[in-house]
Amino acid sequence: MSTILETRNLSFQYPDDTAALKDVSVKIESGKKVAFLGPNGAGKSTLFLHLNGILKPSQGRILFKGREIKYNRSSLMELRRNIGIVFQDADSQLFSANVFQEVSFGPLNLGLPEQEVRARVTKALADTDISHLVQKPTHFLSYGQKKRVSIAGILAMEPSVIILDEPTSSLDPYHGKQLMDLIDELSRRGTTVILSTHDIEMAYAWAESIYVMLDGMILKEGVPEELFQDEPLLKKAGLCKPLILEIYQEFKKWGYFKEEIKPPRNKKQLSQIIEALAPTIKD
Question: Which stretches make up the ABC transporter domain (predicted)?
């Protein structure tokens, strides 16, 4: 796979001298599902604000499709057309009077014909399952609906990369699953999806690659089943081990799993492994 988004030795300092990012280098492959983990204040949100040009680094470079991003108006507009970000707080992203106006704002700013704008809005609303809300005032929406409107506004831009900062925060389990199903569908269509989360179970089951951050630095990057078996890393970053992996390791410790059995990533995979072992366990 080709690299679609990259940072090289990225550092950033806020006006109050807080060093939010320190020599951060990441490579995001096109079409991948990538999660960023770490405690509050680790630098995840600050990094995301750099990836589509909202913040400008104090040092280092950011490359999109191999080309260093520039900070003039036309270059930033093109960048944000290709890289959309959904903020953690949906209220901070919505500013139009109703849903149609909100979702159409981005395509209109691209100077697209009215027919094309309406087609994009209709598709984005259908994809997020909120077509019935098209004329509803944004201030009457539930929190989950606001999240979906925020995502629809980004989808209407047809980006190649979508970044979501804590997408399931403040959502109940049902609506959180609905949102993750939508994110999975975007990934299946080829969109590169980057998210931050405190939900360890979700990150372990969902991500193809995980970056762990602490104090503005990248501690480690790797595939979930290997990264979450790095005990010193988990302790240093204050991360818990996913329950599914803990169960797998207990069975392995008791001698039920052979070395060649890969750690399961979700409940279905764990159930299949246990079901295959059932005769052995009964004996």
Answer: 5-240
207 and 280: one domain?
A: no
Kindly report the number of other CB atoms within 10 A of residue 257's CB atom. Answer: 17
70-121 tens-digit pLDDT: 999 889 988 988 999 998 888 888 888 899 999 999 899 888 899 999 999 9
- Judge whether 45 lies within some domain: yes
Q: Are 164 and 128 in contact (CB under 8 A)?
A: no
- 224 assigned to some structural domain: yes
Q: How far is 140 from 121, CA to CA, in rounded Å? A: 20
If one counts the domains in the chain, the total is 2
Q: DSSP label at 17?
A: -
Residue 176 CA neighbour count, 13 Å, CB half: 13
User: How much is the pLDDT for 109?
Assistant: 86
Alpha-carbon distance 161 to 6, whole Å? 12
Residues 109 and 96: beta-carbon distance below 8 Å: no
pLDDT in tens, 257-277: 766 788 899 889 888 888 877
Which amino acid belongs to residue 112?
L
Do 262 and 224 share a domain, yes or no?
Answer: no
Q: Which residues contact 181 (CB under 8 A, 6 or more apart)?
A: none
Contact 185, 148 (CB under 8 A): no
The Cα 180–Cα 175 span in angstroms is 9
Residue identified by tokens 């096109």 is 30
Tell me, yes or no, whether 14 and 92 share the same domain: yes
Overall size of the chain counted in residues = 283
232/279 same-domain check? no
Domain that holds residue 253: 242-283
